[in-house]
Design a protein that fits this description.
The protein is built from eleven helices and nine strands. The protein is of the alpha/beta class. Belongs to the methyltransferase superfamily. METTL16/RlmF family.
Length: 322
């Protein structure tokens, strides 16, 4: 087969227009920037460079390479067993939030914007990307002290980012915003990638589907028994009640901090959870609700955003921050 007839690297047109990964990955350039990636490179049946997305070490190396090449974030790593998030989808979330905060106006950039990342994890992907792309300030919270200690070591290796990010441990796991949002403290937006499984077994099945979809999209051979390629601990991947239970708690608790946050938000992986969320938000008297669709390859998800501030107050907030 001639080069002209070979399938080209898959371009993900579903990603946000500002997402720098819409044209796919340049694995050769990534490996030059981050040499440890070289040992994980392979050639697909279509003759394209790729990695084995069912191999945790390969996925971690890809993330480290992406963060170094595109965001100038060095020495990113993860402790064994912690969630390794795909960078393009996480960047998409931030772009959609920037659009939400802009409300049709100028994109908000700079340290006057403050975001709260619930469950930031050892990877800290949202604060790292948000600080690098938009220059926002971040508070990252988590119940896991070890995860926060590791993320702090990554921040220490990146002083430019560290100056914009602070970390807080949630000492009471039954709470989400309590103990984290302090009196007199205000956030422009909160974000969260909630645990969406009810059990470890359900999480394993989810990983199996994810790996097979990635293999199909990239022309790789399907894996029958993949590892949890994106890894993840119990609090990262599953919890009592699954995604719906977590969202119910988040919405209920957010009401108490409605005057201190312009927009609350969360990823919602399962579309069937949206009607329940709308009912809970109505019960809590949310003044505005937005559902922002996101697409990455064959995967469709959405961001649910809500505010307890009416339109006039939101306009005043934006003018004050402009």
């Amino acid at each position: 087969m001639s080069d002209a007839k070979k399938p080209q690297l898959r371009r993900d047109k579903g990603l946000h227009p500002r997402n720098r990964h819409r044209q796919g990955y340049d694995f050769r350039a990534l490996a030059q920037q981050f040499p440890p990636l070289k040992r994980h490179l392979l050639t697909t049946q279509y003759g394209q460079l790729s990695i084995n997305f069912s191999e945790p070490a390969a996925v971690k190396a890809l993330n480290a390479a992406l963060l170094k090449q595109h965001y100038q974030i060095c020495d990113w790593s993860l402790p064994e067993g912690y969630l390794c998030p795909p960078v393009p989808g996480r960047e998409d979330y931030l772009h959609h939030l920037a659009d939400l905060l802009a409300e049709g106006g100028t994109l908000p950039k700079g340290t006057h914007i403050t975001a709260l990342d619930i469950g930031t994890g050892a990877n800290g992907i949202y604060p790292l990307l948000g600080a690098a792309i938009y220059g926002w300030r971040f508070v990252g919270s988590d119940i896991d002290a070890k995860a926060l200690q590791h993320l702090q070591s990554v921040l220490n290796a990146n002083p430019r980012i560290a100056a914009l990010v602070s970390l807080r441990q949630q000492s009471q796991p039954q709470h989400i915003f309590a103990n984290i949002i302090q009196p007199g403290e205000y956030f422009d937006v909160t974000l969260c990638n909630p645990p969406f499984h009810r059990s470890a077994a359900e999480a394993q099945q989810g990983s199996l589907r994810k790996v097979r979809n990635l293999a199909a999209n990239r022309g790789d051979k399907p894996t029958k028994q993949p590892l949890l390629n994106f890894a993840g601990r119990a609090n990262e991947l599953w919890c009592d009640g699954g995604e719906a239970g977590f969202l119910q708690r988040m919405i209920s608790e957010s009401k108490h901090y409605g005057a201190q946050v312009l927009w609350f938000s969360s990823l919602v992986s399962k579309a069937e959870n949206l009607p329940q969320c709308y009912r809970w938000l109505t019960q809590q008297q949310a003044q505005a609700v937005r559902t922002l669709k996101m697409v990455q390859g064959n995967k469709q998800t959405r961001i649910l955003a809500w505010s307890f501030l009416d339109e006039n107050i939101r306009q005043t907030w934006r003018k004050f921050k402009a």
